[in-house]
Amino acid sequence: MFLRIDHVGIACHDLEAKIAFFESTFGMTVVSREVNEEQGVREAMLHVADGPNGSSYIQLLEPLSPDSPVGKFLAKRGEGVHHVAFGVPDVAEAMGELGGKGIRLLDERPRHGSMGSSIAFLHPKDVGGMLTELVQAPPPRT
Amino acid sequence: MFLRIDHVGIACHDLEAKIAFFESTFGMTVVSREVNEEQGVREAMLHVADGPNGSSYIQLLEPLSPDSPVGKFLAKRGEGVHHVAFGVPDVAEAMGELGGKGIRLLDERPRHGSMGSSIAFLHPKDVGGMLTELVQAPPPRT
């Protein structure tokens, strides 16, 4: 089902400061900056590796408000790993298969993720305490 | 510096139960089971993807005792993501470079990791709250 570890999402208080840290410390490169109002985050994708089934990233997430999901996470847990995302060929198909196995989905249908992807979240209590995201990459540009 | 997301390490109470869950839910395959006395864990590596610079895995970790680092993590945080590991070409070289940049190392020298790798951990407070592992893959068998 999983094609790759698509990204590890890290919650932080100050996106630009954290980007500068990851760039200068690990030599990583930002490939995308976005604001996702629906999810209440300002985010950046930093490239780690390319593979035959897509690329892997670190995703940095700064909440747009304290009462957003990432804002509440930061207040409760502090900065750190927020979720782990796996690439799938078809997110709707994966949701159907996993829902049929009794995994609770946090989304009824796929929604917009980073860089044009379609995503859905699985309930962390059903996946070993790990908030898990499914990511379907956008179709290649023609 | 980073070649790949090598693995995401997940702390759990019951290794065999969690392996069975990941296999049946996501169709993942266990490629290695080990006991690492030094780190106080029983662990398994589940394959996610192969890439030009190495493979990616989910690592499941069960503590050998409650007073081990993973045992204490479970008592405090419950099951979930324990650390994130990145592949590097040379772990000693990466330690030197990161130490020179002021990142605190939890290991003075590389130690034994999963499947013959050499590893070292970085202080989570210096890497955005994420316990970070450096992994140098073993030399290929001849």
Indicate the topology.
2 copies of one chain form a homodimer.
Chain A: E1 4-11, H1 15-26, E2 29-36, E3 41-51, E4 54-63, H2 69-77, E5 80-87, H3 91-100, E6 111-112, E7 118-122, E8 132-136
Parallel strand pairs in A: 1-4, 5-8
Antiparallel strand pairs in A: 1-5, 2-3, 3-4, 6-7, 7-8
- The helicity of chain A comes to 10-25%
Which shape of chain A, going by the Cα principal axes?
globular
Which fold name corresponds to the CATH topology of chain A?
2,3-Dihydroxybiphenyl 1,2-Dioxygenase, domain 1
Describe the largest sheet of chain A.
8 strands, mixed
**What number of structural domains do the residues of chain A give?**
1
Family (chains A, B): Belongs to the methylmalonyl-CoA epimerase family.
GO molecular function (chains A, B): metal ion binding; methylmalonyl-CoA epimerase activity
Pfam family, one (chains A, B): Glyoxalase_4
Protein name (chains A, B): Methylmalonyl-CoA epimerase
